[in-house]
Amino acid sequence: SDFPEGAEQSLITDFLYTGGLEVAPGQSLFFNNVDSVPHTVTAGTPDAPALDDFDSGLLTPGSNYELAFDEPGVYSLFCSLHPDMVATVTVAD
Question: Would you say the pTM of this structure is higher than 0.70?
């Protein structure tokens, strides 16, 4: 209820990115760290990070990070602190 109307939310919990990882171009996607430890939302993969695309920096428990993508596609992301945490965001019209 703290997020703008039309936004999607992904909870970071139990070392996973959960929730709505499908958005329309320009639609906000909020990552909310509800885990007990810090995480990041970093573009790319652990083997091929793309820090220039996006990087949340350290998200302490209770922190949020907002992303929006202008172009349709599938975007990879991971946690730089926990490289086993990976996900993809699908952006479709």
Answer: yes
